[in-house]
Specification:
246 residues; alpha/beta; Rossmann fold; seven-stranded parallel β-sheet; 8 helices
């Protein structure tokens, strides 16, 4: 006789900022399977509407999370208490370092560290004790390379920042997911015609023998929401990419 498992996020509310595609959308979809209500936020109203329809979101908000006033307004208006808030990043900026303007450099940093800081400030009074703030980082820039100095700096800073936030915001939990290459629409946009070659390279070199997809990251994200003993840590999900030269 098969025993039916009770959904582990039943009755909880999950907010996904950057939830209209890729990792964010897959996390929302998996949270719904686990019984959660989901609230989606993203920049593009059209894509957001489609995503909300796909997962049955109870609420949406279209805004740029890098605009402090918009982020403040979102958290002011959203019903509380919230159980979990996930923020997916825009991905690294690969412009040659010496060709970047000051504004481009500022944005490369603010899209990660400062965004996480302001989300924490705005969400602190909304998330229940034992709930989660969950941020996205990466593993690729841990190995120094030409042109990646700013990306490497943000990559190195995020785990320490998240660990400190976990102490400052306790008993709200704070964790970081560090991903390598993930086969998302954003990756496709960055790589263009080189996408298939990159996929083939990773299949041939990664220890897991396949490319990491959004569902792999979403599975980890939902696990971090469910397991209430996890806080202040960084969890890698890159198929072993940082272990090999790829």
């Amino acid at each position: 006789m098969m025993l039916q498992r009770k959904p582990e996020l039943l009755g909880q509310t999950v907010v996904v900022i950057g939830g209209s595609a890729g990792i964010g959308l897959e996390t929302a979809r998996r949270a719904r399977v686990e019984g959660a209500d989901v609230i989606l936020a993203a920049r593009d109203p059209g894509r957001l509407e489609v995503a909300a329809s796909e997962v049955g979101a109870i609420r949406t908000a279209a805004f740029d999370a890098n605009e402090p006033a918009s982020l403040e307004g979102f958290f002011k208006d959203v019903p509380s208490p919230l159980d979990h808030v996930m923020v997916t990043g825009p991905g690294p900026r690969y412009s040659p370092l010496m060709e970047m303007s000051f504004e481009q450099a500022r944005l490369a940093i603010s899209e990660h560290i400062l965004l996480a800081f302001w989300v924490a400030r705005c969400a602190a009074g909304k998330v229940r004790p034992g709930g989660t703030l969950l941020f996205m980082g990466g593993t690729g820039a841990r190995r120094p390379a030409r042109g990646l100095a700013l990306v490497s700096a943000a990559t190195a800073a995020m785990p320490a920042f998240v660990a400190g936030l976990a102490l400052d915001l306790a008993p709200v939990r704070v964790n970081l997911i560090a991903a390598g290459f993930v086969d998302t629409p954003l990756s496709a946009a960055i790589l263009g015609d080189n996408l298939d070659a990159r996929r083939n390279q990773l299949r041939a070199t990664l220890p897991v023998g396949r490319v990491v997809g959004p569902a792999d990251v979403a599975a980890l994200a939902v696990h971090l929401m469910i397991n209430e003993t996890l806080t202040g840590a960084t969890y890698d999900v890159d198929g072993g990419q940082q272990l090999v030269a790829c």
